[in-house]
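Task: sequence design from structure.
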């Protein structure tokens, strides 16, 4: 199934880690190859909409928007892998295994978030991605990197649990389900003020998408992370921000129209 393949292929790359000590070139070539396989799978399903329900309200969906985001993430994976081939030799040889291990988990969680088919799935994998990024931020193992890691957790994990989760819970209480919709739910159409409050909670709660002014953590973590990861993170964060900004703008317009 293309949906599961997109998420599982980065995790599968962890199995190849022992190969890195035997032959670096073969290891990096295989990782790039896995990224290309994921891209090939996406292009084979470019015009298809696919939904996968795993039960317990964990649903994945591939439509034209999630397809585009998954494509960008896979390209970022390939570029990061190629760039890290030489960069990892300068001060990170002993930490290369850790770098690729957590990078694979981050990519899997990002792809799962991009392909989320409802709010609960989006929250679960958005939350899972936060602790996976932390070991990469502190990879340099310096006081500055640990301070940046602590700031990152405070700025992303706390808003997700104490702001984003209550907003999703409120929508579930109002609608009785976690599904996405093309229109504003009737309960929120009747109360533009409540819709505005929930929208603000979503913006603050998803602070990892770098929407200003809730991105104060980003400059310090960019300085601490290894350059290949910073590059990939910048690419993905910019795309998340662009998509999120479009989503927020659309919903703000809808709220004012209803008002």
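Answer:
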């Amino acid at each position: 199934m293309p949906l599961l393949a997109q998420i599982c292929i980065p995790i599968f790359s962890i199995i190849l880690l022992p190969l890195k000590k035997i032959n670096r070139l073969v290891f990096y070539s295989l990782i790039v190859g896995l990224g290309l396989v994921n891209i090939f799978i996406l292009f084979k399903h470019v015009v298809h909409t696919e939904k996968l329900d795993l039960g317990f309200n964990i649903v994945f969906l591939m439509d034209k928007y999630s397809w585009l985001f998954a494509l960008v993430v896979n390209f970022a994976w390939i570029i990061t892998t190629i760039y890290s081939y030489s960069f990892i030799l300068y001060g990170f040889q002993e930490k290369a295994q850790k770098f690729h291990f957590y990078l694979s988990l981050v990519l899997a969680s990002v792809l799962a978030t991009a392909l989320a088919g409802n709010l609960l799935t989006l929250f679960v994998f958005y939350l899972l991605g936060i602790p996976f990024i932390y070991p990469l931020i502190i990879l340099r193992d310096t006081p500055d990197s640990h301070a940046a890691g602590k700031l990152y957790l405070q700025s992303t994990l706390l808003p997700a649990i104490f702001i984003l989760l209550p907003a999703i819970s409120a929508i579930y209480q109002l609608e009785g389900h976690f599904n996405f919709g093309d229109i504003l739910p009737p309960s929120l159409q009747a109360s533009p003020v409540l819709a505005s409050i929930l929208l603000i909670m979503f913006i603050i709660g998803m602070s990892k998408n770098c929407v200003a002014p809730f991105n104060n953590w980003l400059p310090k973590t960019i300085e601490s992370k290894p350059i290949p990861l910073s590059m990939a993170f910048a690419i993905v964060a910019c795309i998340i921000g662009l998509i999120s900004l479009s989503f927020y703008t659309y919903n703000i317009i809808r709220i004012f129209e209803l008002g």
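The chain has a mean pLDDT of 79.
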